Amino acid sequence: MPQLTPDPVDVFAWIDDAERAREEAGLVRTLRPRPSVSPLLDLASNDYLGLSLHPETVRGAQEAAATWGAGATGSRLVTGTTELHTELERELAAFCGFEAALVLSSGYAANLAAVTALSGRGTLVVSDAGNHASIVDGCRLSRAETAVVPHADPDTARKTLAAHEGRALLVSDSVFSVDGDAAPLAEYAAACRDEGAALVVDDAHGLGVLGEGGRGALHAAGLAGAPYVVATLTLSKSLGSQGGAVLGPAKVIRHLVNTARTFIFDTGLAPAAAGAALASLRLLQREPERADRAREVAAQLYGRLTASGLTAARPDAAVVSVRAPSASAALRWAADCREAGLFVGCFRPPSVPDGISRLRLTARADLTGDEIDRAVGTILATAPAGATDGQGR
Ligand code: PMP
């Protein structure tokens, strides 16, 4: 045993300063476990279709774990592929309208895989400024030249692609996770077609909510299955499970199997997660009205909150973003809602780089009329001074 000095230097002293700064700015984050049977009305989770606790979804997970084990036991290329994984890939691709699919252990890993495997040194990645952190990290890891273009600005994206010689990729969220606004997918696609670039779209918030029966934003835009289009998905939101996927032409998927590091070097998705996602996907196909209902609930929440003077972004999918006067007011507002029995999301910097703090509400398809009344009543009753003098976007 090496001799330990009695008073080692605090090598993490610098964290004290960082913590103090976070405290002063009201930006400290803490983890709180949620109770299994929550007394709170949930408008904070991404369980858009209310499927994570659906008996069929839960049974899908249970049966998969009982058959295949609690863990995948290895990477997908060794022991981590079960028939559930391949069925899920086949059914996801068919449902969303793509030739092939690849399931990964998270949506985060799916974005890293798609962006890194389809770009690389000497290529250009054009990335919408509002993109999710996993796309930003994919760009960083890719060693490609990355051009971050202003949010939802297809003209600048087009000009940036046109100025580049050689291989290029345009990447965007389909629905932006904080404000809930949709990307200009038709314009992005036209720019890619004209400039010979690939289009990668993260449809995390579109799957299950947008398009016919929840087939997603690319299906809604008539872009599913186009030979230059790739979609990334998470299985953790509308499908109520866990995991991610990349969808696209079969040769793109084969390329990912052979080159994407977050696929090759990661343990495969747990069988229970694959089984749950598969059960949810089949349920959604039998009950396509769930997708319409999620959008309808979002429209109701937006309409009623803005009619009462709150400023909110018009929802393009199931996310309703309500503006708060400040970061500390947002935090207080969310805490007051929680005390009154309503669980809402609270977004502050650095999650919102523009510095505007918000409450983030998710419009679940299974919310009843009474629950919507209660949610609206609570948000209005707890609204801080300065929150109710605005209007909708
Ligand atoms: N993309 C977007 C737009 C997301 O909102 C999220 C989840 N926060 C992810 C990707 C990551 O997906 P996962 O949670 O499955 O890693």
UniProtKB/TrEMBL annotation:
Residues 40-379 form the Aminotransferase class I/classII large domain. Gene3D superfamilies: Aspartate Aminotransferase, domain 1 (3.90.1150.10), Type I PLP-dependent aspartate aminotransferase-like (Major domain) (3.40.640.10). InterPro entries: Aminotrans_II_pyridoxalP_BS, Aminotransferase_I/II_large, AON_synthase_class-II, PyrdxlP-dep_Trfase, PyrdxlP-dep_Trfase_major, PyrdxlP-dep_Trfase_small. It catalyses: 6-carboxyhexanoyl-[ACP] + L-alanine + H(+) = (8S)-8-amino-7-oxononanoate + holo-[ACP] + CO2. Its cofactor is pyridoxal 5'-phosphate. It comes from the Bacteria. The keyword Transferase applies. Signal peptide: none annotated. Its EC number is 2.3.1.47. Keywords: Biotin biosynthesis, Pyridoxal phosphate, Transferase. Pathway: Cofactor biosynthesis; biotin biosynthesis. PANTHER family: 8-AMINO-7-OXONONANOATE SYNTHASE (PTHR13693:SF100), CLASS II AMINOTRANSFERASE/8-AMINO-7-OXONONANOATE SYNTHASE (PTHR13693). Belongs to the class-II pyridoxal-phosphate-dependent aminotransferase family. BioF subfamily. Homodimer. This is 8-amino-7-oxononanoate synthase.
